[in-house]
Amino acid sequence: MDDEFGAGYSRTLASSLVLAAVGGVTAQEALAKGVAPREVWLAVCEMQDVPPERRLGRDQPIKEK
Length: 65
What we know:
Elements: H1 2-5, H2 7-16, E1 18-19, E2 25-26, H3 27-32, H4 37-48
């Protein structure tokens, strides 16, 4: 969430945005109840209109072995 929304705002979203897709609770509450992080993230993306191309996070360079 930090990559998409910034460190400060992502904390606010996680604790205050109620996500209907995961039972009408916040992201923090959903995670505490055992909802899969990916399911929570996708629910946040839907509520915040994150475009599909940004839902996997920012690209990371390939690590050389």
